[in-house]
Design a protein that fits this description.
heterodimer, A: 5 helices, elongated, B: Rna Polymerase Sigma Factor, Chain: A, Arc Repressor Mutant, subunit A, 7 helices, 71% helix, globular, transcription (chain B), RNA_pol_sigma70_r4_t2 (chain B), DNA binding (chain B), sigma factor activity (chain B)
Chain lengths: 79, 175
Amino acid sequence: MAKVVEFVTRLDIDALADDQLAEEREDAVRRHLQTDGGALEDLVKMDMLNAALQALKPAIYRDRALRETVEKLLRRRAA
Amino acid sequence: MQTQISTAELNDCLPALHRFALQLTRNQDRACDLVQDSVERALRKAHLFDGSNLRSWLFTICRRVFLNQIRSEKARGVAVEMDDAPQSRLSSAQTQEQTMHFNDVVDAFQKLPVNDRVILSLVVIEGMKYEEAAEMLDVPVGTVRSRLSRARNRLMTMTEGENEAEEGTNLAAVV
């Protein structure tokens, strides 16, 4: 019987860090993380980066142009 | 006092919180202790949670608890087993490095191309789903994911001091 190889990409790792990994990919990604130390390291880096950006939101949004752009997009979503 | 944190939401955040704690402490036991302390603190301070992004809030608490621990350890000195000493020194050096890293993130973020800043703001800071961001920016979901990945790569490269952003910074072009 042919063995099915499940490819796990960097985008899967990103999605896991963002809590947006599709349910059907979760098992494959978690299995991959158990065997690939590099992937786990990438995941931790993504977590760290996400946490830093979220914690630094007030400082990042001191950039008025960016803040206004994001607000405009969010208003567009709400409309 | 009424808590604004549900157990289910908290449980969802624990794996990521543990990975974060592990990265800070570089030690499995200390990471578990840090998660425990952070969750206890979060539950005690649940009335201060604004209800927007639990994960981000927990990470902030975790970082503060960790920094407090480091400060108090520095003040009183830490008793360690001889076998633990090299790892302990390594952990301390990495912690200082990590703190500096956080301080560099804002500077690096501001140097990113406009599309990178916007996509990171929408998805990572505002917690938007990939599909929502794709619809908002009128691009395919795959494009959102690849832009996000490139943005993170650039940011990490810049915070590691290896490169500089090269693209333009015209925010008006995004909306």
